[in-house]
Amino acid sequence: MDITIIQSETPPPTQYAHTITMVIKSFKGRRDVDIHLFRSAWDASDEARENWDALISSAKDVDSLGSQRVIMESFSDEERDNIINYLKEQYSTRLSAIRATPLTFPVPAGLSGLSQLQPDKSVGFIAFDKIPSYSLDIPLMGLYDLSQHPPIVEE
C-alpha cells in the first residue's frame, strides 16, 4: 500500500487543515475507487472559535458556508495520523493507497462541503461509525463516485 502524507510548508491557520483520500482496490464492482474521507459532525463551539475572515477568501455575494464546511470536515494532525493508522491496520489488504494533503489557505469562498453532496446512482457515502470494528472517536464518513472508476468486469 502506498501512503503519501504531504506536509504544509507553513503552519496552517487552523487545526482542521488535512484532507485524506483512500483508494480501495475493489468496491461495488469497480476497481481502484477513491474514497474522500471527511468529518461528518463537530462541536458548534469549535466552529465558532475559527477566524473565518482569515480562513476563507472573501468574494462579494458568494456564500462562504460551504467553504466553512470544507474546513470543518477536514482533520487535525493527530486525527489524520490516527485515521491513517486505523486504515493501515484494518484495511491493509483492501487498500492500494492513502493520500493526505493539506488544504491551501485561504480556502476559496463558494465551495461545497462533501457532506452537502446528494447520493445518487453512482455517488454514495460510507458511514464508518456503522462498521462494527470502527474504533476511532472521529465521526468519519467517506464519499465515493463510482462513475469515475472502471468496472472490474468490462461489459
How much of the residues is beta strand, in percent? 25-35%
**Largest β-sheet summary:** 6 strands, mixed
Helix content: 10-25%
Weakly predicted, low-confidence segments:
none
Q: Over all CA atoms, what is the radius of gyration? A: 16 Å
The termini sit apart by: 29 Å
**Strand order in the largest sheet:** 1-4-2-3-6-5
Order of helices and strands: EEEHHHHEEE
- Look at the structure and give the mean pLDDT: 94
Give me the secondary-structure category: alpha+beta
How many runs of DSSP E, i.e. beta strands? 6
Morphology call:
globular
H/I helix tally: 4
How does this structure look, described?
- With 155 residues, this protein is an alpha+beta fold.
- The chain contains four helices and six strands.
- The protein has helices at residues 44-49, 52-55, 65-72, 77-91, and strands at residues 2-5, 18-27, 30-39, 95-102, 123-127, 140-145.
- Strands 1-4-2-3-6-5 form a six-stranded mixed sheet, covered by helices on one side.
- The model has no long low-confidence stretch (mean pLDDT 94).
